[in-house]
Amino acid sequence: MTQTGLAGTCRAVIAGVGSALPQRIMTNADMSKVVDTSDEWIVERTGIRARHIAGEGETTRTLGLAAARKALEDAGRVPADVDLIILATSTPDQTFPATATMIQADLGITRGAAFDVQAVCSGFVYALATANAMIRCGQAQCALVIGSETFSRILDWTDRTTCVLFGDGAGAVVLTAEAGSRGIADRGIFSTRIRSDGRYANKLYVDGGPSTTGTVGHLRMEGREVFKHAVVNIASVMEETIAEAGLTPGDIDWFVPHQANRRILEGTARKLGISEDRIVMTLDRHGNTSAASIPLALDVAVKDGRIKRGDLVLMEAMGGGFTWGAVLARY
Hints:
This protein has one domain: Thiolase/Chalcone synthase (Peroxisomal Thiolase, Chain A, domain 1, 3-Layer(aba) Sandwich). Helix content is 31%, strand content 26%. The protein has helices at residues 28-31, 39-46, 60-75, 99-106, 123-136, 160-163, 223-244, 262-272, 283-286, 293-303, and strands at 2-3, 10-20, 24-27, 50-53, 84-88, 113-117, 142-150, 168-179, 188-196, 204-206, 219-221, 254-257, 312-319, 323-330. It has a five-stranded mixed sheet with strand order 1-9-14-13-12, with helices on both faces. Helix 3 (60-75) crosses helix 4 (99-106) and helix 7 (223-244) runs parallel beside helix 8 (262-272).
């Protein structure tokens, strides 16, 4: 799926951002009491030092709702303005209905559409590309795009190769339709690219499901295989997304990647010639929050003043499936 739109009459603009995290922080020292690991081992291999873990009453729905409310406030919008909600998640509150519809009800919204997108860690990129396309074709005017996850509930807490990596959290953006020529200097989403290759589904997956085991299952991963494909796939789709907008990596102000592994982030940036000081990195305190990681990192960098209005931001992700993709936008 490709959405360029530089010649379009309507563009999707990021009008607001927000995020939410569970109260409990689990450090690497805390983790070492659960499995045979250490702070040094985790930091050296991943760059992660801590993560937030959902407690009683904290779910994908509640975290997503909190992030959505903050994004609406940041955008100066009210729930009644919203006519589309897309929630990216692999850990919904229930098999169905879609958790997005629950958030829609919580916000008191009774118009438009709400649905979930499941592309694992690439979910937010997929959701953003979908919302952008719907705004571009006139099917929505104001969209809430949310990434919310509670991966702690599908982890095998005896497997130190996976349980140390993930955390819980949510992030959201408000997209609004704005008329204009959408030239390269204008704010808005310029290009999106999403890809998948199901041949590698067994490299990163959950070993359960309603139609197979009747259980939720646990996350399983072949870390080396994922790493090997990640840098190549992500760099390639980023190059395509940048080129589609007629730009070069040197034009990028900020690189906001999916927060999977420090080595992957640095390797990808290096492959494209993006300097490390332009990478927004939050995995040290959040871990890998799957579909929530990009909007979480985006919100952090906007709130601390790094990302400013008019900055060119490149977002990317790769997840189980394999799925991967990138979005280029002027914030």
